[in-house]
Amino acid sequence: MQEYLNALQTVLDEGVPSDDRTGTGTISHFGLQCRYDLRQGFPLVTTKKLHLRSIIHELLWFLAGDTNITYLKDNGVRIWDEWADENGDLGPVYGHQWRHFPQVKNNTFVGEIDQIQTLLDAIKTNPSSRRHIVSAWNPGDVDDMALPPCHTLWQVRVQGDTMHMQLYQRSADMFLGVPFNIASYALLLEMLAHVTGYKAGNFIHTMGDAHIYSNHMDQVATQLARKPHEAPRLIINRQVSSLFDFKYDDFTFENYNPDAAIKAPVAV
Ligand SMILES: Nc1nc(=O)c2c([nH]1)NC[C@@H]1CN(c3ccc(C(=O)N[C@@H](CCC(=O)O)C(=O)O)cc3)CN21
Ligand SMILES: O=c1ccn([C@H]2C[C@H](O)[C@@H](COP(=O)(O)O)O2)c(=O)[nH]1
């Protein structure tokens, strides 16, 4: 995961001090891209221990179209707690837009678009398409979301027997959020490739505002002083035919030997 550590270093070296919504303050570098080749191993940060449980359950929760944190809480995942209302709702965030994107024609609501099913169908019928896109950014709904989507839009590209993916992330918390985001999208690419019969290739992570919060500086220094370990391998334990049938226990990360976790406060 040298690629991720290099990106952290770039933000440190080239970032400029910036105000931000949370009042914490950041150094921010606008426009950054990393490329992870999943054929070389699974891109889990090894210079601190990641809470894989949160990453896997959050992705299954997005794919289920869920936007209430009850499922996450029931599974010991707390990363969305600060943003939920008293009923556990986050508004029409990722899960809603991925599975139930409102379709409007002639200014009238005509139904919902299941962007994930549409993507799966299109990969089958028209693999070489350059239009395999899923968008979580819905301008009409942004005001009703607890947090407007950070991982905003992603594209899948099939080339030969290999499937690649690129994510555009508008805002990237380099220390806390980004290791989760890389793992989550790499896992999504592996799952998509598995159910459609392709090999998983590159995950390209394009970031808009890539920032380090002012209260993460010591943690970043600790992390950059560590040497990355060998990349783990993802094992999918059974043949799954529908993307929506994956369960938490279907995934094993072999050879994941990270350094100790590094605690950091999340900016709300
Ligand atoms: N400032 C900020 N950064 C984020 O990364 C972020 C948000 N806000 N808001 C929405 C989601 C929630 N995400 C989060 C929230 C918390 C952690 C976090 O505290 N991670 C710790 C422990 C995680 C755990 O126990 O599951 C870590 O060490 O990685 C990570 C991602 C990503 N997002
Ligand atoms: O998946 C995620 C979700 C959130 N973030 C970070 C990026 C920012 O630090 C905050 C969001 O604040 P905005 O003011 O809405 O940009 O959350 C992330 O890195 N990854």
UniProtKB/TrEMBL annotation:
<protein>
    <recommendedName>
        <fullName>Thymidylate synthase</fullName>
        <ecNumber>2.1.1.45</ecNumber>
    </recommendedName>
</protein>
<keyword id="KW-0808">Transferase</keyword>
<feature type="domain" description="Thymidylate synthase/dCMP hydroxymethylase">
    <location>
        <begin position="2"/>
        <end position="268"/>
    </location>
</feature>
<feature type="binding site">
    <location>
        <position position="173"/>
    </location>
    <ligand>
        <name>(6R)-5,10-methylene-5,6,7,8-tetrahydrofolate</name>
    </ligand>
</feature>
<feature type="binding site" description="in other chain">
    <location>
        <begin position="211"/>
        <end position="213"/>
    </location>
    <ligand>
        <name>dUMP</name>
    </ligand>
</feature>
<comment type="similarity">
    <text>Belongs to the thymidylate synthase family. Bacterial-type ThyA subfamily.</text>
</comment>
<dbReference type="GO" id="GO:0006231">
    <property type="term" value="P:dTMP biosynthetic process"/>
</dbReference>
<dbReference type="GO" id="GO:0006235">
    <property type="term" value="P:dTTP biosynthetic process"/>
</dbReference>
<comment type="pathway">
    <text>Pyrimidine metabolism; dTTP biosynthesis.</text>
</comment>
<keyword id="KW-0489">Methyltransferase</keyword>
<dbReference type="InterPro" id="IPR045097">
    <property type="entry name" value="Thymidate_synth/dCMP_Mease"/>
</dbReference>
<dbReference type="InterPro" id="IPR000398">
    <property type="entry name" value="Thymidylate_synthase"/>
</dbReference>
<keyword id="KW-0545">Nucleotide biosynthesis</keyword>
<dbReference type="InterPro" id="IPR023451">
    <property type="entry name" value="Thymidate_synth/dCMP_Mease_dom"/>
</dbReference>
<dbReference type="GO" id="GO:0005829">
    <property type="term" value="C:cytosol"/>
</dbReference>
<feature type="binding site">
    <location>
        <position position="267"/>
    </location>
    <ligand>
        <name>(6R)-5,10-methylene-5,6,7,8-tetrahydrofolate</name>
    </ligand>
</feature>
<keyword id="KW-0963">Cytoplasm</keyword>
<feature type="binding site" description="in other chain">
    <location>
        <position position="181"/>
    </location>
    <ligand>
        <name>dUMP</name>
    </ligand>
</feature>
<comment type="subunit">
    <text>Homodimer.</text>
</comment>
<feature type="binding site">
    <location>
        <begin position="130"/>
        <end position="131"/>
    </location>
    <ligand>
        <name>dUMP</name>
    </ligand>
</feature>
<dbReference type="GO" id="GO:0032259">
    <property type="term" value="P:methylation"/>
</dbReference>
<dbReference type="Pfam" id="PF00303">
    <property type="entry name" value="Thymidylat_synt"/>
</dbReference>
<dbReference type="InterPro" id="IPR036926">
    <property type="entry name" value="Thymidate_synth/dCMP_Mease_sf"/>
</dbReference>
<feature type="binding site" description="in other chain">
    <location>
        <position position="21"/>
    </location>
    <ligand>
        <name>dUMP</name>
    </ligand>
</feature>
<feature type="active site" description="Nucleophile">
    <location>
        <position position="150"/>
    </location>
</feature>
<feature type="binding site">
    <location>
        <position position="51"/>
    </location>
    <ligand>
        <name>(6R)-5,10-methylene-5,6,7,8-tetrahydrofolate</name>
    </ligand>
</feature>
<feature type="binding site" description="in other chain">
    <location>
        <begin position="170"/>
        <end position="173"/>
    </location>
    <ligand>
        <name>dUMP</name>
    </ligand>
</feature>
<comment type="function">
    <text>Catalyzes the reductive methylation of 2'-deoxyuridine-5'-monophosphate (dUMP) to 2'-deoxythymidine-5'-monophosphate (dTMP) while utilizing 5,10-methylenetetrahydrofolate (mTHF) as the methyl donor and reductant in the reaction, yielding dihydrofolate (DHF) as a by-product. This enzymatic reaction provides an intracellular de novo source of dTMP, an essential precursor for DNA biosynthesis.</text>
</comment>
<dbReference type="GO" id="GO:0004799">
    <property type="term" value="F:thymidylate synthase activity"/>
</dbReference>
